[in-house]
């Protein structure tokens, strides 16, 4: 049994001018200790998916349907009290903006210790010792001094390390990281990514990484889910996905990224564009969600929404025209 | 490509820090501290660096959005850094700007028509109303927006379309130089490609020079002719892009190149992870400003500030870097040779 | 797109299962009705304010008798079919007086809101753009703000003769510092907006920057602030009248009516009660309208979801 199983997840929002189907029928699973990346552009539903797992969607105006099974237990049926016991303990989350996610009036040590005292009933002294231990783990120098400091005394990179320390304090089985490095500079991002890779081996938590940056995905993920307009359009292990993307959207995304080192390899070609805009999620889309921007679109696509098909072992894509392995071979 | 459209010599911008009841100055933020470069006609120069390095301040200083602390700015032969506002106003036409945020860069209470007409009217470019109309239509065509969209409000457009309107506004004054301040950074990948292609097409079509300010090295490499790398208010390296990406000659550039995640799973590359954070521009380190994070720093770096000088084994002409390592014999210089391919995992 | 859809799914085609709706559909209403439906606070506040305005305008027709005519024989009557809200110590009809009182309250509220906004806007724009003026004006405003507005208004009233005009003037002066601070703050943040930088870069002169780029964008927050000023001015006016420093006793204002009823509060509470209820409802209505406008005009709120 997988650690996390998401089945037919639908998260809709009521807005004055219609229902926003932010996530509409998403299925995926995460195995224990595995790193799964969910990628897509803004508005594709990747963050809403993450928030839905922890039931952090305000209801109303939102509503979540489907099933989210964590260790076999459906979180959508759990009581608020049970959810509080899970959040920050068995499943924890890292957010994009470390400054706004930390409480400015509490010391770093208090904030790490708080979850420990709440979930594991540690005493104040034990919690502080553990906080120092966690700061050491995430590579903050002089942890004994830093635990008594306030967030504003730390740099952006340090704050994100503190966020990671808080998230890992209770030894979660699942860590949801929502754009953890997007707000950081390249050199700091490199530090944090290195830390995440290192911690993955040491802590053993499964990670759901939400990002729009395909470079970050290639660096840390094992499996990748590509989302577009509230649906999963492709899923594969990271290698095959980058080497052999099947869905036209994934192909378009990879083609529209300039390649670093293009001036050396002489591949200075014009960037491939994906024409047009993401469709409005407030109207039902009858056929394929990508049909309005797809270069390979036919009548079939606008009439029938393609189901996710296994195009190669472990590689699924929702496209009528993405070739299956045996067809390619033949 | 021989006459510089813009020459910048020793540009400085120090922001005073006011504190206390009487608002006395207690110190300065050395945001830009002696920056020099030229941009040739039709050339793209990129200014890269991390947040707080002063790259955006350079852009705003060139546009004279605030008074400069020091230095010379020569735009098309006229020295504009100390020019009174009234004299400068007609010259502003030559240098226009595209900003990062497509939402706050357009006045929400103006229709697209009025946004685009503003520079045309200010610079008195249109002969009559028919000419103005023709110019407006031309601008919409140039940025590939439908002509009838001109009577709509900014909030009716998506981020990418707003950025096109921002570009059209910059083009309205028929400039020689456009400053793109993180102009594509806030956009989604697929929209980013559309805008990058549009900027490149416009540059070839109109022969524009561009100052492309960005933190995204992949986009910079794609867009640019030459690259200047900034760190803590100073330029540490300038080179034609092939030379910079193929053989970086400053340890900071080297670390930047190795830090960018590349979309190639399992890529084998040399990784240089810099320790610590960028020091505060209020109290920049003595000597070389990078020595606190530099993996190769030695005694001289802590005391003596290196100057930008041509480097010996560059891949192209005009490659300058500010690093003491180049005074050492090649065997003791970790930056010798062309290491770009290893850093970028092109092996 | 829907033309020629085959009746059967072609063979070999894998169609995704249809996802149902998990919440009832939204009936999107367009136009004015839709706006009110999306902003119920504006609808409720606006209706109440409108109602009060009607009461004020049509007071002479709605009132049963002259609000100032004395009738010693009919003193302190309880509310009845003849005197809906009873009569006061001098036998004047409280109902008629309360209706006429709405005129004073609304006149003062709206006038103060208008003049304070206008003057505050001018001062705020000046100090947001001229650094030297800013330091002088804002220190002066700080000084004024250290005096409670009600005290300032009382002091100003003490210098003049009691009249509605002077009440408006006194409260306006007391409210100006708050408005100019608000406008100055908005102007300073607007000056940092990239579209203002872009306008400067494209050769727009400072007067046009203010007129075209700054002023229109200050109007939304100023409108919201004006409603709060209006509400606060109505309360201040009532307090001034209540302590005898406001409108002259000859003019029926809610403060005056309450002041006259104060002595009989223990035995004839209705004399104070009715004007107080009208004042509360009016202030509440104006504040509701302000809250609704703030939510509707604030682009950050509107952009959510």
UniProtKB/TrEMBL annotation, chain A:
Matching InterPro entries: AAA+_ATPase, ABC_Ni/Peptide_Import, ABC_transporter-like_ATP-bd, ABC_transporter-like_CS, Oligopep_ABC_C, P-loop_NTPase
Compartment annotation: Cell inner membrane
Topology in membrane: Peripheral membrane protein
Gene Ontology biological process terms in this record: peptide transport; transmembrane transport
Matching SUPFAM superfamilies: P-loop containing nucleoside triphosphate hydrolases
Domain ABC transporter, chain residue ranges per copy: 4-254
Keywords recorded for this protein, A-Z: ATP-binding, Cell membrane, Membrane, Nucleotide-binding, Transport
Keyword Transcription applies: no
Cellular component, GO annotation: plasma membrane
Highest taxon in the source lineage: Bacteria
GO molecular function: ATP binding; ATP hydrolysis activity
NCBIfam families reported for this sequence: oligo_HPY
Family the UniProt entry places it in: Belongs to the ABC transporter superfamily.
Name the record gives this protein: Peptide/nickel transport system ATP-binding protein
Originating organism: Falsiroseomonas stagni DSM 19981
Automatic annotation (TrEMBL), chain B:
UniProt domain ABC transporter: residue ranges: 6-257
One GO term describing the cellular component: plasma membrane
A GO MF label: ATP hydrolysis activity
Regions that span the bilayer: none
Keywords, in A-Z order: ATP-binding, Nucleotide-binding, Transport
CDD domains per UniProt: ABC_NikE_OppD_transporters
Membrane topology label: Peripheral membrane protein
Keyword Transport: yes
Gene Ontology terms: biological process: peptide transport; transmembrane transport
Pfam family, one: ABC_tran
Record bears the keyword Acyltransferase: no
Domain of life: Bacteria
Coiled coil: none
InterPro entries xref list: AAA+_ATPase, ABC_transp_ATP-bind, ABC_transporter-like_ATP-bd, ABC_transporter-like_CS, Oligopep_ABC_C, P-loop_NTPase
Compartment(s) where it occurs, according to its Swiss-Prot or TrEMBL record: Cell inner membrane
Protein family (similarity comment): Belongs to the ABC transporter superfamily.
PANTHER family reported for this sequence: D,D-DIPEPTIDE TRANSPORT ATP-BINDING PROTEIN DDPF-RELATED (PTHR43776:SF7), TRANSPORT ATP-BINDING PROTEIN (PTHR43776)
Protein known as: Peptide/nickel transport system ATP-binding protein
TrEMBL record, chain C:
Parts forming coiled coils: none
Signal peptide residues on this chain, from the entry's feature table: none
A Pfam family hit: OppC_N
Residues annotated as transmembrane: 42-63, 106-130, 150-174, 270-290
GO terms for cellular component: plasma membrane
GO biological process, one term: transmembrane transport
Compartments, record wording: Cell membrane
Residue ranges constituting the ABC transmembrane type-1 domain according to the UniProt record: 106-290
Membrane topology: Multi-pass membrane protein
Claim: Heme is one of the keywords in the record: no
Statement: the UniProt record of this protein carries the keyword Magnesium: no
UniProt main location, coarse: membrane
Swiss-Prot/TrEMBL keywords: Cell membrane, Membrane, Transmembrane, Transmembrane helix, Transport
Gene3D superfamilies according to UniProt: MetI-like
Family note: Belongs to the binding-protein-dependent transport system permease family.
Name recorded for this polypeptide: Peptide/nickel transport system permease protein
Gene source species: Falsiroseomonas stagni DSM 19981
